[in-house]
C-alpha cells in the first residue's frame, strides 16, 4: 500500500535557473493547489526573470514551489511560511532535496504573526508572494499591513494570486497596481511601491 501511495505523489518541476528541471513535490491532498508552470513562468518573466540576490517572503508557502523557483533564478534567501503541518513537511523535503537549507527560513505561523515578527526584526523584502486560501479579503489586508509595517524594499514587487473574479484597487497604501492578468480561473495582480520604476 505504501508503495502505491508513493507512486501517486504529485510532483512539479523547477522551470528555469540553477535547478532547472529538478523535480519537487506538491503537498498531498486537495487542500493546496500549486501554481501551474504556465502561471509561474509568466510571473517570473514579468518580475525577473532572474535575480541578483534579494530576499523573498512567501507567506502561504504550500510546497515552497514559488520560493524555490525564485532561488533557482538567483534570489538569495526566502522566508517560507505556512500554518499547515503537511505543507511544512513538504517544504522541508523540497528544500532539502535541492540543498538550499541555508537559503530558506521555514516558519509555521498564522500570517499575522509572521508579519509582526518581520516588523520586529526590521526585515524587508524585494519580493512578496501572496496566495492565501480566502484570497480577496486577506490580500487587501496583507497589502495594508505590508505598507504599515514597511516590509517591502524600494522597487520591491508584491505578486498576488487569486480567483479570476477578484479585482483589487489600483492603489493600496504605498503599492500601485502595475498589471493584472487572468489565466483560466486564476488572476495574477502585480503591485510595486509608489514612485518606483
Task: Describe the protein's architecture and organization.
The longest helix is centred in the middle third of the chain and has 14 residues, at 85-98. The protein has helices spanning 2-8, 37-47, 65-72, 85-98, 111-120, 135-148, and strands at residues 11-13, 23-25, 55-58, 77-81, 104-107, 125-130, 152-163, 171-172, 175-183, 186-193. The model is unreliable at 1-8 (pLDDT under 50). The radius of gyration is 16 Å and the shape is globular. The protein is of the alpha/beta class and 197 residues long.
What is the percent of helical residues? 25-40%
**In order across it, which strands form the biggest sheet?**
5-4-3-6-7-10-9-8
Low-confidence spans: 1-8
The profile of the biggest β sheet is: 8 strands, mixed
Radius of gyration: 16 Å
Shape: globular
Global mean pLDDT: 91
Strand tally is 10
Ends distance: 55 Å
Judged by helices, strands and strand pairing, the structural class is alpha/beta
Number of helices: 6
Q: Order of helices and strands, N to C?
A: HEEHEHEHEHEHEEEE
Query: Beta fraction of the residues?
Result: 25-35%
Amino acid at each position: 500500500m505504501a508503495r502505491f501511495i508513493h507512486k501517486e505523489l504529485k510532483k512539479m518541476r523547477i522551470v528555469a535557473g540553477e535547478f532547472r528541471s529538478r523535480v519537487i513535490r506538491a503537498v498531498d491532498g486537495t487542500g493546496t493547489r500549486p501554481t501551474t508552470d504556465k502561471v509561474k513562468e509568466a510571473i517570473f518573466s514579468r518580475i525577473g526573470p532572474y535575480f541578483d540576490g534579494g530576499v523573498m517572503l512567501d507567506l502561504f508557502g504550500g510546497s515552497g514551489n514559488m520560493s524555490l523557483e525564485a532561488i533557482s533564478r538567483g534570489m538569495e534567501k526566502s522566508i517560507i511560511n505556512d500554518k499547515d503541518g503537511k505543507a511544512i513537511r513538504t517544504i522541508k523535503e523540497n528544500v532539502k532535496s535541492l540543498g538550499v537549507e541555508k537559503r530558506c527560513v521555514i516558519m509555521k505561523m498564522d500570517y499575522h504573526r509572521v508579519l509582526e515578527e518581520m516588523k520586529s526584526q526590521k526585515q524587508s523584502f524585494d519580493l512578496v508572494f501572496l496566495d492565501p486560501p480566502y484570497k480577496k479579503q486577506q490580500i487587501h489586508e496583507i497589502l495594508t499591513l505590508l505598507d504599515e509595517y514597511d516590509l517591502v524594499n524600494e522597487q520591491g514587487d508584491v505578486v498576488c494570486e487569486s480567483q479570476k473574479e477578484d479585482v483589487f484597487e489600483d492603489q493600496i497604501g504605498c503599492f500601485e497596481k502595475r498589471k493584472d492578468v487572468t489565466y483560466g480561473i486564476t488572476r495574477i495582480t502585480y503591485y510595486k511601491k509608489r514612485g518606483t520604476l
